TrEMBL record:
<feature type="domain" description="Bacterial surface antigen (D15)">
    <location>
        <begin position="53"/>
        <end position="354"/>
    </location>
</feature>
<dbReference type="GO" id="GO:0009793">
    <property type="term" value="P:embryo development ending in seed dormancy"/>
</dbReference>
<keyword id="KW-1002">Plastid outer membrane</keyword>
<dbReference type="GO" id="GO:0009658">
    <property type="term" value="P:chloroplast organization"/>
</dbReference>
<dbReference type="InterPro" id="IPR000184">
    <property type="entry name" value="Bac_surfAg_D15"/>
</dbReference>
<dbReference type="GO" id="GO:0016020">
    <property type="term" value="C:membrane"/>
</dbReference>
<dbReference type="Pfam" id="PF01103">
    <property type="entry name" value="Omp85"/>
</dbReference>
<dbReference type="GO" id="GO:0009707">
    <property type="term" value="C:chloroplast outer membrane"/>
</dbReference>
<dbReference type="InterPro" id="IPR039910">
    <property type="entry name" value="D15-like"/>
</dbReference>
<protein>
    <submittedName>
        <fullName>(wild Malaysian banana) hypothetical protein</fullName>
    </submittedName>
</protein>
<keyword id="KW-0934">Plastid</keyword>
<keyword id="KW-0472">Membrane</keyword>
Length: 360
């Protein structure tokens, strides 16, 4: 549900877009499997403002504001035009507040859901992105930003320890500061019968001041899909690791959609390293409808004990999980409607409902 309005000012068209959607319709359709006791916890309002010619030289200004019941995010981006053969620059300011469920959430119902652990994160950042000119198959982006992270309790008050009395921040204070240099490269090639994608991300915490986080974090995602007769098989492998200073909220979390289905968000575990494998086999039924069979597995490779405070071990998370199931995919004008029915290693079942492309 949304509305869009364009305003012409000094030969520039300013686009306003207001959208009210629900990220996971299953919160209303399937109340027994929702992540929160509040059926509107996933409702989100989005306001988008775009100015394509801010100072009369094709400078672009984007303002995006998202608001949910438990979280909100505001992003301001300013881009100046540059020749195509030079890297494109984007200056960004962002502020968000959201529950930290992936690491500090409490697993319930045999790890099928994750409840609140009383920890929320307020993040503020300012930085600049440099997007390199793309080649036929490669693209890359470099960014540097200052980030300020402050833990909050459910009442909005600043905290520095979790419900068990363990530190939430790396500095030991009520906040963490860091300068993060990030490099991301992506390779993609595709045709009607197959595709190959490779994504590499590396983040480096720069030691400009004392007690600022110094770390190196990398993540690699490789995926491949190909036709088998009328069917299509997609496989992916994700791995990552972090060394140096870290706060618990920086750990790699396993479990949930996009990771290991059949488990709640972060309910498999969280560690300094991770390895996740996914496989999905889709079978066309009609032009718009597909059936799917999938299997996911993930492990923290025994690294949970190296996360400060051992949050995953204290919460009894297994550190390894396998989920398998089946689902349907329906392509509509709203986007791709996905329904997945998954079972985890504890023989507990979870139903996921989502729409890809809504609100994007």
């Amino acid at each position: 549900m949304g509305a869009q309005k364009s305003i012409h000012a000094r030969n520039a068209k300013i686009d306003f877009n207001v959208d009210l959607t629900q990220k996971l319709c299953g919160a209303l359709l399937f109340p027994h499997i929702r992540q929160s006791s509040n059926p509107f916890s996933q409702v989100i309002a989005r306001l988008s403002i775009k100015h394509p010619n801010l100072f009369g030289r094709n400078e672009k200004l984007d303002v995006l504001w998202d608001k949910g019941i438990d979280d909100f995010n505001i992003l301001i981006a300013f881009r100046r035009p540059r020749p195509d053969w030079l890297s494109q620059q984007s200056f960004t300011i962002q502020h968000s507040v959201a529950p930290e469920i992936a690491v500090h959430g409490l697993p319930v119902d045999h790890f099928t859901r994750s409840g609140s652990g009383g920890v929320n994160l307020s993040r503020s950042s300012v930085g600049v992105d440099f997007s390199e000119p793309s080649t036929s198959h490669w693209s890359s982006k470099t960014s540097i930003k200052f980030e300020h992270v402050r833990p909050l309790n459910n009442d909005g008050h600043t905290i520095n320890r979790d419900m068990d009395g363990f530190p939430i921040t790396s500095s030991g204070r009520s906040y963490d500061n860091m300068i993060v240099l990030k490099q991301e490269s992506q390779y993609a090639i595709a045709n009607d019968d197959r595709f190959t994608k490779f994504n590499f991300q590396m983040e480096q915490g720069l030691p400009l001041l004392s007690k600022w986080l110094i770390f190196n974090r990398f993540k690699i995602v490789a995926s491949k899909g190909f036709k088998l007769g009328p069917t299509f098989l997609v496989t992916s492998l994700t791995g990552g690791s972090i060394v140096g200073d870290m706060a618990p909220y920086q750990a790699f979390a396993l479990g949930g959609i996009g990771s290991v289905r059949g488990y709640g968000e972060g309910a498999v575990g969280s560690g300094r390293t991770c390895l996740v494998a996914n496989g999905e086999f889709t079978i066309p039924v009609t032009k718009e409808l597909e059936g799917a069979i999938f299997m996911d597995c993930g492990t923290d490779l025994g690294s949970a004990r190296y996360v400060p405070g051992n949050p995953a071990l204290r919460q009894g998370k297994p550190g390894f999980g396998v989920g398998l199931g089946y689902g349907v995919r329906f392509n509509s004008h709203l986007g791709q409607i996905r329904v997945d029915y998954a079972i985890n290693a504890f023989q507990r079942k979870t139903l996921y409902f989502g729409i890809n492309g809504v609100g994007s």
